[in-house]
Amino acid sequence: xxxxxxxxxxxxxxxxxxxxxxxxxxxxxxxxxxxxxxxxxxxxxxxxxxxxxxxxxxxxxxxxxxxxxxxxxxxxxxxxxxxxxxxxxxxxxxxxxxxxxxxxxxxxxxxxxxxxxxxxxxxxxxxxxxxxxxxxxxxxxxxxxxxxxxxxxxxxxxxxxxxxxxxxxxxxxxxxxxxxxxxxxxxxxxxxxxxxxxxxxxxxxxxxxxxxxxxxxxxxxxxxxxxxxxxxxxxxxxxxxxxxxxxxxxxxxxxxxxxxxxxxxxxxxxxxxxxxxxxxxxxxxxxxxxxxxx
Length: 294
Prior knowledge:
mainly alpha, three-stranded antiparallel beta sheet, 15 helices, 3 strands, elongated
């Protein structure tokens, strides 16, 4: 290693040490450093940005995509990905290749998330690359990092959402943490105006949440934000029947009564949704309100 210390006359004294012993900068030392330098470049980010920029100038984005798997260290790979997404607008084929490489070459879930957030605008604009993007999101092992990517997407322009929503919801379904899944779905309902078909898909995704409290919060949010549509109400009532907590089911059913005026057919389905409630008090509270609404 190099060591620098104050030298005579205010200068800098440079010494080279190897295996704990000071060595002179002779031909053998220079040869050893020359052999070591390429390995350092492969494993660390030393000089990686300038090398990546040179590759882009000489060979374009395809050159970077070809070089990333040859690197041995993740720090250098991350720098190459940064330059790839900053260098030029990538077409769908290059975006798909980049998404696959992020899965294959980056092990850190946090760094995978960072790169996908960085490139999200390009992927949302390229319909043919969106599937590869959401595949990469699904490959993130950490529920928190996967949630972070999906929530970051919600800050993008809503004109893209109709086409992006199926992949978004599929990636959300694959989140194992009920709390993280609930946060993504409630953020989606807060930030994006959805049609009735999209809302039904959100309800079906929420039905897969195991936690009664987290599921109830999503269903209540749907009731608060959804248009008065019988398809949406029917989906909410079906999902409410999967709530294990009688108290949570009561809260959702009463929210439907308060906000959606379900009509005669809807009231019948709402009564049916009370079947299996384990609390007589919660059941009575719902049925009393139904009787008042008739």
